[in-house]
Amino acid sequence: MMKNILSLLLVTLLFSSCKLTDNPSVEEAEEVANAPKDTIAVSDKDENGCLASAGYVWSKVNKECVKGFSGIQLNPANLEANEDETKSAYVLFSEDVNQAEVFLPNDANSIILTRKSEGSPWIYQDWQLIPWKGYVLKKGEEIKFSGDAEIGHKVLGSDTEQ
Predict the structure, then answer these.
(1) Helix residue spans in the chain (DSSP H)
(2) Does residue 153 have a pLDDT over 50?
(3) Residue 75 CB: number of other CB atoms within 10 A?
(4) 55: region left, alpha or beta (phi > 0 left; psi from -120 to 50 alpha)
(5) What is the DSSP letter of 36?
(6) Rounded to whole angstroms, how far apart are CA atoms 114 and 133?
(7) Model's pTM, two decimal places?
(8) Kind and range of the H or E element at 71?
(9) Which among 41, 21, 25 is positioned nearest to 33, based on CA atoms?
(10) What is the pLDDT of residue 87?
């Protein structure tokens, strides 16, 4: 008899101590909601909400977050076979193609160039983006960057041995 009572007590204790549901209690849900946010993830977004660690920057022309290495890649004039994307400039165009936003390497701010008519260069101060064999980006009279009209990173070498 004592053995049966002890067994019943043990089984009751086991069942009552088991969590029968995976749903959090109201207190647990409030605790999670009030927990401090991850400061690294919060501070990684810029003032426009773009996630810098994922390579996103704000496009003033398109009014959205874009990948930093998207758009038309222009290589430095002195490094035509450049394979280092961080040394390239990138150009994004507005929908009507009358504005060109240029992202220069090592510069946090983009520059917006505007053209007056189709076929003419996009201009801002002493910067010019000229549609010629792709695009040429000049500052004053000096060619700074150039490239074809292809979007994004291009494979410049071969992955096969010669």
Answers:
(1) 2-17, 26-33, 39-43
(2) no
(3) 21
(4) left
(5) P
(6) 20
(7) 0.62
(8) none
(9) 25
(10) 84
Q: How far apart are CA 101 and CA 130, in angstroms?
A: 13
pLDDT number for residue 39: 47
Q: What is the CA radius of gyration of the chain?
A: 29
Q: Give the separation between CA 103 and CA 122, rounded to whole angstroms.
A: 14
Centre a 10 Å sphere on the Cβ of residue 79 and count the other Cβ atoms it contains.
12
Q: What's the rounded mean pLDDT across residues 32-43?
A: 53
Distance CA 149, CA 31 (A): 53
Nearest-angstrom CA–CA distance, 21 and 5:
28
| Residue type, position 47, single letter | E
How far apart are the C-alpha atoms of 89 and 73, rounded to whole Å?
Answer: 6
Residue 17 has a pLDDT of 53
Tokens of 57: 């920057």
